[in-house]
Amino acid sequence: MKLWVYIVRRLLLFIPTLIGLTFIVFVLSHSGGTNLVLAEYVNPRLTGEARTLLIQKLTEEFHLNQPIYIQYFYWLYQIMQGNWGYTNTPIFSGSVVTAIELFLPNTAMIAAVASILIWVIGVPLGVYSAVNRDSATDQVVRVGSFSLYAMPIYLIAVALILAVGVYLKILPFAGVVNPLLVSNLSWYHNGISYPTHIILIDAILHNNWQVAWNAFLHLLLPSLTLALATVASIIRILRASMLEVLDQDYIRLAWSKGISAKLVYNLHARRNALLPLLTLFGLTVAFLLGGAVVIETVFSYPGIGYWTTQALLNNDVGGIMASTLLFGLILVSANLILDIAYAFVDPRIRY
Amino acid sequence: MSEVLKVKEVKQQFYTRRGIYKALNGIELELRKGEVFGIAGESGSGKSTLGLTIMGLLPRNASVTSGSVLLDGKDVIAPLREYATKSNQKFNFRRNENVIKKMNRELSTIRGNKVAMVFQDPMTSLNPVLQVGYQVAETMLVHQPRTLAMRRLARANAKRSDLNEALKVLRATESDEKALEDFFRNKGLEGLTEQVISIWRRKDLADAKKEKMILSLHSEKLSWFDRFVLNAVKEKGNLPSWLSKTPILSRYTRRVLLKEGYLKALELLSTLEVPNADKVIRMYPHELSGGMRQRIVIAIALANNPELVIMDEPTSALDVTVQAQILELVRHLKVKFNTSFIFISHDLSVLSEVCDRIGIMYGGRIVEIAPTKEIFDNPMHPYTKFLIAAIPTLEEKEIQEIGGAVPDMRFPPSGCMFHPRCPYIMEICRERVPDMIQVSKDHYVACFLYSGDNK
Ligand SMILES: Nc1ncnc2c1ncn2[C@@H]1O[C@H](COP(=O)(O)OP(=O)(O)OP(=O)(O)O)[C@@H](O)[C@H]1O
Ligand SMILES: [Mg+2]
């Protein structure tokens, strides 16, 4: 089978997965007695006559007099139109689509920096640990990664804040930028930077290197926390799979060719050892998302995770629904991308 | 005749959770240049372990407690032996592994270059994520970049008239390779000889087609950068370090050599009669049959024309026709390049077809060594006699079985390893290890039946 047939098939599988997810959330959110649609679509700033009129209109449009499973389909139809309703939280109040536009880039940013950190910390340590098994370094790496693995993510965050932020005072640990630096900038209003909404990139676009550097420093601690929480399992699994690969006949054949140790480890062994990790990366994405919720809250970092916490705390149905959907979408697409990547890396996989 | 390999008194053991397996218990072996030495013995007698010990390719739980393996003027296993004998403390896996790593570094100049090994199981011997062409080319890329550079440069520098003349030389001298080699050397195109010959020798093509292929060898041009790289490799023997150390540039630089490596791999596979070799070099191991993989593994071993090739059951995965082909190849290489072989097989009839001498292994010792004909005509050790009687023949339907089982090598029998199964057992067999004694020219046996002092 061709690769594109496989991709199309996987894309089709998307649909039932997402329908299942949204249906469960939709039904559950009604169990509290509030109507999801009304909570989601009535602009909270509206009052009086206008509000009553809007509710009437919505009842008609969403068929709110019908049984719940019928309501669900009308609601889904609106979602597919890009009509995601309203959110009302202390950090942002307005259309959900705008909220996503504002918060998602920030989350993508720490996830990206964290992924790079995971890669540059995890892979060399895992490989080194396996190649020098039982050495002192290996023992330290093993104990260290196991402790990290056992630690809840907020503990890592608090420990880092105390050590690096409060005690050493070398890195900032709240927000995205020092507010004093951005108070008079033309491209920054009300905590929102333009045009990409990622302050680091916007500062670079506007050639403001002082702000860019400050924004970069603000990025480090949350990203590092996210990376540390994930890297432990990467190291442990890579070490184990590398040890297994190093025992294989084809590695013995590689040694018998008289090629350098570097070539044996970094090409012949590592490429095979990384394959199981690729599957793990699907889980890592889920872990990163979950971690982002905690970490962004601890660091008051205005990303999707922080917004989700705020929505939960304020009973903001629009925000909860939207972030659930969004997380589902990200997870399913990440897994799809990884499966396709797998096909490119492992020649044995055929669809 | 000079020796390529001298194995003396090698004792080797494996540390495992279940105990210490004494795999080799005093191996003596000398291999002459251009000789094919067969090793036969039951499963578990230590044949593969002997091959691996000669290559210095032991796992971390392997300890060499005595002996030496002299290969290319070097004692291959000296570091392991020194570790095992020097330290009076307990065997430590990590320290032993560090010694093995050091050996890997030291032996990298001879492995794959002077000595190569074909491993027992072709299904697991190839790297699943690398193209087979690369796996064959890699050995050449590491050990003989100059040869590759000369091949490529010769193709770029040759004119059509040179190749036409070369064909005339081949026809006039009735395919004399020496004459062709001289012809190309005079022209400064040494790298072309083997390329022309390998096409010329192909059996699957018509003459007209072969001539056309040879004539088209000159048509590939080189970019100035590639030419610069190849010339540097030709002069210095390897890539200039400022090129090979720079991350992205090094990959770009190596490309032209790698491509040539693939072409040489293609040639090598064609001589091994791999069908569709040009497609096969771009395939991954899982796309190939067992027999095909075995040929790739053999191609990897032969890539640099090593002086000694250890073949561990190279024909067991192959059907009879391919098996015959491999045996033919061994004979050919032995004559043409004076290559020595250690040919391991549990099948004496296969060994009888190619080997000059055969050694019979039992319990980690060689119990009898003799020229091939002699071992069949006049087997002396009781175990050899059993092995030969166990060969199925057309006339005899009934195969004689050897009673008893291979000894548990954690607790090897005292004295002669074979005494628990031997029908001629004497008192002394339990007490002393028999020495190798010479019974006739080149025929040695380790058995008290022949030593005279068996009273
Ligand atoms: N890595 C290892 N760890 C522990 N014991 C081993 C190891 N490799 C081999 N052995 C033991 O060494 C002995 C000899 O094994 P070896 O593979 O050399 O036998 P062989 O003659 O090649 O047998 P076969 O004909 O089945 O290939 C066996 O008893 C085996 O259990
Ligand atoms: Mg074996």
What does this structure look like?
The complex is a heterodimer of chains A (351) and B (455). The longest helix of chain A is centred in the middle third of the chain and has 38 residues. Chain A is 74% helix and 3% strand. Chain A has 2 domains: 70 residues; 250 residues, Orthogonal Bundle (MetI-like fold). In chain A, the strands form 2 sheets. Chain A has a two-stranded antiparallel sheet with strand order 1-2. Chain A is built from 15 helices and 4 strands. In chain A, a hairpin with a 2-residue loop joins strand 3 and strand 4. Chain A is mostly helical and 351 residues long. With 455 residues, chain B is α/β, with parallel strands linked by helices. In chain B, strands 6-7-8-3-9-10-12-11 form an 8-stranded mixed β-sheet, with helices on both faces. A 4-stranded antiparallel β-sheet of chain B has the order 2-1-4-5. Chain B is globular, with a radius of gyration of 25 Å. The structure holds adenosine-5'-triphosphate and magnesium ion. The site of adenosine-5'-triphosphate (ATP) has 17 residues of chain B, from strand 1, strand 2 and helix 1. The site of magnesium ion has 4 residues of chain B, from helix 1.
Overview features:
heterodimer; A: 351 residues; mainly alpha; MetI-like fold; 2 domains; two-stranded antiparallel sheet; two-stranded antiparallel ribbon; 15 helices; globular; B: 455 residues; alpha/beta; 20 helices; 45% helix; 17% strand; binds adenosine-5'-triphosphate; binds magnesium ion
